[in-house]
Amino acid sequence: MTTDDDGHRDGAADQLGTLRARGPWAKAWDRFRRNRLALISLVFCGVLVVVAAAAPWIAPYHYSATDYGSQLVGVGADGHLLGTDQLGRDILSRTIYGLRTALIVAFGAELLALVCALAVGLAAGYRGGRMEQGLMAFTDVMYAFPSYLFAIVMVAVLGRSIFALIVAIGIAGWVTQARLVRAQVLAIKQREYVEAARAMGASGPTIAVRYILPNAIGPMLVTTSFAIPAAIAAEAGLGLLGLGVQPPTPSWGGMISEGTRYLLSAPHMLLAPAAVFALALLAFTWVGDGVRDAFDPRGDQR
């Protein structure tokens, strides 16, 4: 009996030692998997991405195809699962293509914002001096300017297109992330392994990219996971204002705006895109919550 107890304790100790020896990314993934809501949301977001990528094959109709004999028909009528709009276009098909537009804009804008934030934050935090003062002064000016108003101005200047929305939302959203990158760089560049790399003759760009940047990725993933649903909401908001993509390309904001005009006579025009829009925002936000908790060091103590 004693031998079995000792073997059990030794096995548990070995397992605990293995968990402690795992890297921070493996530990973060373990904490994320324990959050069932975040894990289910991640799967749902993956499904949304697949549906958006396969929109030409999944959607029953092209988003601009019109059926003038079936205008404003209800759910399930005339072969249209979610009905049609005032021009006889299939609501389900337009909702799927609207998802594609939203994800392209959101991921593209966040990639642009992340590149700008990393460039400014790394340069300001590592170089310091006048470069840091100049870059942070520029960042403060951008931060003081309302981001949504800036996005509206950018779309008005660049025109209504997916590219314009990506640039407008991306340029308007990099400021907060740049501040975070700078703060991370200022903390990391004083650590021993960075000093050792500097003493061995590593160049500034090498130290910044090879030693500092990988250790600052965790907090950036957290902010990125929350910035994606914010970009989806921004794209829809611009569509509501009539500054989204050029028709007939569908966007959730434009569809919701059109649906409000027919709320009493054809409520399905509003409910279908609004419901998918709300579910997508919730899913991406819950994924962001899970990523934030996963990179919280206190998660191992819970």
Automatic annotation (TrEMBL):
Residues 99-288 form the ABC transmembrane type-1 domain. One of its GO terms (biological process) is transmembrane transport. The chain crosses the membrane at residues 37-59, 102-123, 135-156, 162-181, 220-245, 265-288. It is found in: Cell membrane. It comes from the Bacteria. Its main location: membrane. Pfam families: BPD_transp_1, OppC_N. Keywords: Cell membrane, Membrane, Peptide transport, Protein transport, Transmembrane, Transmembrane helix, Transport. The keyword Cell cycle does not apply. One of its GO terms (cellular component) is plasma membrane. It is a multi-pass membrane protein. Belongs to the binding-protein-dependent transport system permease family. OppBC subfamily. This is ABC transporter permease. It comes from Phytoactinopolyspora halotolerans.
